[in-house]
Automatic annotation (TrEMBL):
Keywords: ATP-binding, Kinase, Nucleotide-binding, Serine/threonine-protein kinase, Transferase
GO process terms (BP): regulation of RNA splicing
Species, as recorded: Mola mola (Ocean sunfish)
Known EC number: 2.7.12.1
Protein name: dual-specificity kinase
Any one GO molecular-function label of the UniProt entry: protein tyrosine kinase activity
Record's GO cellular component terms: nucleus
Signal peptide: none
Length: 264
């Protein structure tokens, strides 16, 4: 925040002038995913920024590619002969986290439902209460989207969303101690109540696959990224990776010195 002023009862705030969001750049680039190096740099900054929030007892609650903006979205252009299209490569992956309209302090009232659908953690869907780990889940979804160019959980329905999670991450809900009075309508005898033979079941089978099958390369850094994402997409919030530990992850280790310098 640079400054603020009151304009006829309206609070106006002056911020740094930023460029395209990471989502808008992706969209304007025909959803061509970011390179593994670009994902690494953006991921490190994102983890660092949100760790700062969590250290100060704040949960952002609405992390998504639209709310992560490039400082500059200047790009170079190249022509992909094989795909017969022009492709953009952003020159600098320096980013800022924005939109704190839903940010909530630990001591404040917590709305039942938070986060934009595709980045919503299971504890939020099931109304089991939420805290800092729901941001970590959102970051895991965002990193997948940067790497592949499309949304991990493309749905608008709670039950289908949970089914997608089981298809991609495994049927681990049966191990999670649910509150007996909340959202049991989604479960029967401790298992997700989901009809595999329905049209929705077919959609999930055809459009979702186990997480590691989305890898674009068998190179070590690609596997390290997916190890990081898996740690962020842990069902149980108490077992989910905390951001202080995420910054020590091997995915960042080889480039940590460079990352620290470029994040200053």
């Amino acid at each position: 925040m640079f400054d603020w002023f009151d304009y006829h009862g309206h609070m106006c705030i002056s911020f740094e002038l930023l460029a395209l969001s990471t989502f808008d750049f992706l969209k304007e680039n025909n959803y061509l995913p970011y390179s593994i190096g670009q994902v690494r740099h953006m991921a490190y900054q994102l983890c660092l920024a949100v760790k700062f929030l969590h250290d100060n007892k704040l949960t952002h609650t609405d992390l998504k590619p639209e709310n992560i903006l490039f400082v500059s979205s200047d790009f170079t252009m190249s022509y992909n002969v094989e795909k017969k299209r022009e492709e953009r490569t952003v020159k600098s992956t320096a980013v800022r986290v924005v939109d704190f309209g839903s940010a909530t302090f630990d001591h404040e009232h917590h709305s039942t439902i938070v986060s934009t659908r595709h980045y919503r953690a299971p504890e939020v869907i099931l109304e089991l209460g939420w805290s800092h780990p729901c941001d970590v889940w959102s970051i895991g979804c965002i990193l997948f989207e940067y790497y592949l160019g499309f949304t991990l959980f493309q749905t608008h329905d709670n039950r289908e969303h949970l089914a997608m999670m089981e298809r991609i991450l495994g049927p681990k809900f049966s191990d999670w101690p649910f509150h007996p009075l909340r959202k049991q309508k989604y479960f029967y005898h401790g298992r997700l109540d989901w009809d595999e033979g329905s049209s929705a079941g077919k959609y999930v089978r055809e459009n979702c696959k186990p997480l590691r099958r989305y890898l674009l390369s068998e190179a070590e850094d690609h596997h390290q990224l997916f190890d990081l994402i898996e740690s962020m997409l842990e069902y149980e919030p108490s077992k989910r990776l905390v951001l202080a530990d995420s910054l020590k992850h091997p995915f960042f280790e080889t480039a940590k010195k460079v990352l620290r310098e470029t994040c200053r």
